[in-house]
Amino acid sequence: MRRSSSLQAALSPAKTASSTVTATPVAEEVVQEQVHKLVVRHTPLQIFVCDEESHFYSQVLEKLLLRNCRDTRARIIEFGAGDGTPVINALLRGASGGCNFGDSMVHGYELNPKAAAVATRNAADMGVAHQYKVHNSCFFKGAATTDATWLIANPPYIPAEDDNILMPALHGGEDGANLTRDLMTLGFENMVLLLSAYSNPVETIEHARRQGYRVTDFMVTPLPFGYYSSEPKVRKWIEGMKEEGKAYFSRNTYLLAGALLQLPARMDEDDNDDVAPSTPPPAGNIVPTPLRIRRASREEGYKGRRPAVPCSAIADDLTDELIAVMTALK
Question: In whole numbers, what is the pLDDT of the chain averaged over residues?
Answer without folding.
Answer: 79
